Structure formats: structure tokens, C-alpha cells
Request: fold
Amino acid sequence: MILQQILRLSSIFRSAVSIHLRRNISLSAIVFNKAKELDPVQKLFLDKIREYNTKSKQTGGPVDVGPEFQKEMNESLARLRRMYGEGDLTKFPEFKFEECGGTAPTLSAL
Reply:
């Protein structure tokens, strides 16, 4: 009887310790990965993204495009304006939802 209780407590203790160790090992792995230096490919990729970001902020649009790109973009915007009307087509549309004031329709009402 006492032996069974000791074995049960030891299995509970063992599972609690294993969970605690797994959490600590996984946490320390994350910390060590953040502490180490990036590999050269990741560093090059991040450097190129940062470089493109600064260039696009300076030019105010796409980077390293020629006059053909601007011409095609203006033609596309003109075509879209003819199809869908006026407005600024370079911005995301704003949606305004008004409350209906009543209850939501049910399936039987539809």
C-alpha cells in the first residue's frame, strides 16, 4: 500500500519535472537563437529589405522603375477610373457600417 503511494507520487513528480525541464530547455533555445548572430544569407536578405525601404521612402514609390512603368500605371488607373468611376484608386477604400437599429434577421424571416 505504501509502496504504491510512493510509486504514484514518484510518477507525478517525474512528470512535473519533465514538463518543467522541457519548458526551460525550449525557452533557453529561443534565447540562444536570438543571441547568436544571423547567418550570412539572412543578414543579406534583411540588409536588402532595409535598403529598399529607405530608397522607397526617398522616391515616394517603387524603386528603380523606368518611365514605362509609370506610363503603364497611369494607363491602368485611367482604365479603372472609366470602369468604376472617379476617386483615388491608389488608396484602400473606407467602409462605413451603420447599425440597423433592429434585431438581426433570423432564417425564418428570410
Observations:
- Residues 1-36 form one domain.
- The mean pLDDT is 76.
